[in-house]
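Example record used in the benchmark description.
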Amino acid sequence: MLACLLAATSWGAAASEQHDNSAAIRGTGFDFYVMSLSWSPSYCAAEGANANRNQCDTDRDFAFIAHGLWPQFTSGYPEYCASAEPERVPYHLVDTVIDIMPSAGLIGHQWRKHGSCTGLTQAEYFEATREAFARIAIPRRFEDADDAQQVSAEEAEAAFVSANPGLAPGGIAVSCRAGRLAEVRICLTKDLSFRDCAEVDARGCRASGLDMPPAP
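Model output (structure tokens):
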């Protein structure tokens, strides 16, 4: 029994040390993160023929994807910051997140607009993006995009709160566009714990009857 307890303690310490050394925790120059999850079929429907084909071809069935990991201030947010890192994201880093951000153009844009303001290297920023995406459980009803759905912003928020212990209604906001659910935005501390964010929450969509179109 003692051996088991010692092993568990050792594992817990190692896991804590690994988490404390994560890319996300080393971010500087901002207060917290917003992890923006985009309902991919809404983007595809809105953009039509102009949509990125890697994301929206008929053989693609993306549901919620990582739109981006955004550094925030308590009021407002930084963007397009000066950085010693290059503006272009090399292919070997694109490949590390292309499964959750299925567009090289999106990946590059997120780095230039948001990642450059985190104090992280490109590699650290995209590691942090993957960590943040993995931190959030997608509610079962939103795990695939085979069928059209209709929800209210309140229902969508409640589903995420229910699926993610520790996430409070004050730490999540829905974005809507043209009658569709576009994004779910979830606020995280620098070590990727859930937190409230009054300004982000206040800007959230309150509409009912939002369409969630199926994958193309």
